[in-house]
Amino acid sequence: MLAKLIVYCAYYLKSADGYRRAKLFFYDLLENSHSRKKKYFDATMIGLLILSVIFLIYDIEHEDSKMGGYFELAILMVFIVEYLVRGWIYSDTYKVIIEEYEKALYLNLNFNLLRVFRKAFVRDIEYITSPFAIIDILAILPSYRPLAILRIFIIFRLFKLFRYSNSAKLFADALASKRFELMTLLIFTCFLVFIASVSIYMFEYQATDSGIHNLFDAFYWTIVTLATVGFGDITPQTTGGRWVTIFLILASLGVLSFFTSILIAAFSEKMLSVRESRTYAELDRYDNFIIICGFGRVGQEIARHLHNDRQKFLIIDRVPARIDLAKKRGYLAIESDASNNEVLINAGICRGASAILCITGDDVINVYVTLTSRHLNKNLRIISRANRHDNVNKLYQAGADNVIRPFEIAGLLAAEFVGQPVAFEAISGILHNQTETVMESVLVSEKSPLDNQKIGQLDLQQRKLTLLGVISDNPIHLKHKNKYQVNQQHFYFNPEVDFILRHGDMLVLLGRKYGIDHFRDQVEQRRLFSRHPK
Questions:
Q1: What's this model's pTM, rounded to 2 decimal places?
Q2: Is residue 138 within 8 Å of 153, Cβ to Cβ?
Q3: Is Methyltransferase found in the keyword set (predicted)?
Q4: Which residues pair with 332 in a beta bridge?
Q5: d(Cα 457, Cα 43) in Å, to the nearest integer?
Q6: Which residue in 310, 337, 426, 472 could disulfide with 437, CB within 3.0 to 4.6 Å?
Q7: What number is the average pLDDT over the span 469-477?
Q8: CA dist 264 to 23, 171, 178, 314, 320, Å?
């Protein structure tokens, strides 16, 4: 009966929306590094930690301070609640119960409640014995006033800063990456301290006016000398003791040099991660930005236009020189491989990115990045670059919404507009922002005067407009040449004069903005006039 009740409660918690929302809220508050709630919480906890240390130090000299006692009690409650909530987030006991229950049903075995509790208990122990959980417990101990000796653990409250400060975490990660080197140095240092302490004790113990009377004095002298501090309160009086001092000083120079080189190497290796972290932190402030994979000639031109339009974007490229160029221009950029899932996730492909441009010079990379991006975010707009015509379908199959072919487009423009310098100059002006020429679209709506009209009847040259092409999904146009698939539609580049427009088509026009607006207004007025004749 008890087992059935526990299983029922486990399934109830699994399906309870309130329980799930509460757990998600506290996860965002305490663990989710991309959540704004966590940033505010971390800042608050850092302030409380510093204040608690200040009040505890003040309380050493003012034991009867009521204000310090009340504040310490409040801090203690916050620490205890945080510790329990973190344990609750870490351990999902109901999942363990459901897993064991379904396993027993599948294997036709008896449901062993004791095994479930044992498994849940082991998971709880994993959390309790984790480094951060131990630090949390040691940070709570100084609050127990009857045992004044426990106040020595006040220092562990400062170690809690590793939870809330990215800089502190970076320092810890840098040291952790050099565990082997640091452990080797520590073993050598311990061996050196032991040998030096015993040696100086043997030489100085019976010497006249010697400051070394026991092994602790020898150990203290060794540490002071090894650290090159040299207080001078204990000095060797014998020749043997002075030789030990000389060798220890020389050895200490090597130890300190080795330790310094380890730190420099660790932080040098972490500098790239630091730069990436700062870039990711900057992206967290944006809700709508574009990811540009590749910063070659095409990427540089796209980034320039996006920057001029005040659009937020992130550049990802593996070439250090290109990343340096992007940063010199003031763009957000990271030196990494865009085909890596973790890189795209950290770049915000699942939370803030509205589109991704896969525009490297390698079609294989573009296909792979497109495939990865579509897998990570089903609703993301993906625009990919194809350098070869036979890779276009592969990019669409990989999940691209649109595929651009820069070299083919450049060739078509050159071929189609030979002998038409005005049109070519208009396109060049748009690309380089040198003229007031714009490229805009005009919709052929139902019952529009453009419906069933031939291109040659529009008299666009007299209006000083140039037709770049027509976008349509009407199958009747498939017989025309120079068509290029755009998602579920086709783009008909520079269509012939006998091309007949249908409602739903879209004209892509080049010209002055007021000229295109005037043409659009005339079309709309004629459409309204035909619907409401006098």
A1: 0.52
A2: yes
A3: no
A4: 314
A5: 68
A6: 426
A7: 87
A8: 41, 12, 11, 30, 22
